[in-house]
Amino acid sequence: MHRPVIMNDCGYVSEIFSSIQGEGYLAGRRQIFIRLTDCNLDCKYCDTDHAKSEFCRVETKPGAAAFRLLNQPLAVGQIHGIIADWLAALPGAHHSISITGGEPLLSADLLKSWLPDLRGLLPIHLETNGTMYIALEQVIQHVDYISMDMKLPSTSGCTENLWDLHRLFLQTAHARDVSVKIVVGDETDLGEIDQTCNIIEAVDSTIPLFIQPITLADGLIGIKAGHLMRLQELASSMLPDVRVIPQMHKLLGAL
């Protein structure tokens, strides 16, 4: 039964779809993705349109890759109804709900209202750029998994020094099942790997680190295999759980 729309729990969503998680700790799991709008960073490799729109794209059925448009903003009751219908249609197919963006923690007040309801359907997986630790504190009790990016200057193009924010974020995120992802390319140097590993080690050396080769605009991988191996070798000398995973959903041609 679909819940009534209550305007004070309404927010802007870019799209809702079902796909295979292609990155990080839950790679290979099928999830329902709720992509929120807006971001506080402007990474040069970002391939996502997270601008606000008057419409939200929603798959006509899970995995269809065909969409209908819903007027914005959306209420949690509408989203709950969509997901409940999909779970009834495909029992057992989905592992969790991935809250992604943009940067979803820009909508922390909204998520604080939405997540208890959505978590009653499936576990919650938060994908974040790992900079908004104060916002994370507002919602972490409603989250099961956190996939945290650390933005390397060489690949992200971010000029601001984010290391201290990443350190504070990881300290907060450690209260949940957290993993760290870095995007690497030919420009990535060993010092960036050393800095990443030092931050993880200071919090908990068993936190998994995922090294993701950058995907270029033409779909090719933007790092030579030999350099990728050297980055992996250094990280593995400092941390016990280091994995190299490209963006699997792009290899599969999935959303």
Can you tell me about this structure?
The chain is of the alpha/beta class and 255 residues long. It has a domain at 7-182: Aldolase class I (TIM Barrel). Helices cover 32% and strands 24% of the residues. The chain has 8 helices and 12 strands. The chain has helices spanning 76-89, 108-119, 133-139, 153-156, 163-173, 190-203, 225-238, 248-252, and strands at residues 10-11, 13-20, 30-36, 55-59, 67-71, 74-75, 96-100, 124-128, 145-149, 177-184, 209-213, 242-244. A 10-stranded mixed β-sheet has the order 5-4-2-3-7-8-9-10-11-12. The longest helix is centred in the first third of the chain and has 14 residues, at 76-89. It is globular. It starts with 9 loop residues before the first strand and ends with a helix. Residues 1-7 have low confidence and may be disordered.
Describe the SSE topology.
Layout: E1 10-11, E2 13-20, E3 30-36, E4 55-59, E5 67-71, E6 74-75, H1 76-89, E7 96-100, H2 108-119, E8 124-128, H3 133-139, E9 145-149, H4 153-156, H5 163-173, E10 177-184, H6 190-203, E11 209-213, H7 225-238, E12 242-244, H8 248-252
Parallel strand pairs: 2-4, 3-7, 7-8, 8-9, 9-10, 10-11, 11-12
Antiparallel strand pairs: 1-6, 2-3, 4-5
Helix pairs in contact: 2-3, 3-5, 5-6, 6-7
Strand content: 15-25%
The helix content is: 25-40%
Which structural class fits the helix and strand makeup? alpha/beta
Mean pLDDT metric: 92
Q: Look at the structure and name the CATH superfamily of the domain at 7-182.
A: Aldolase class I
Number of strands: 12
The CATH topology of the domain at 7-182 corresponds to TIM Barrel
From N to C, what is the helix and strand string? EEEEEEHEHEHEHHEHEHEH
Give the neighbour order of strands across the main sheet: 5-4-2-3-7-8-9-10-11-12
Show unreliable segments.
1-7
The CATH class assignment of the domain at 7-182 is Alpha Beta
Specify the CATH architecture of the domain at 7-182. Answer: Alpha-Beta Barrel
Calculate Rg over CA atoms.
18 Å
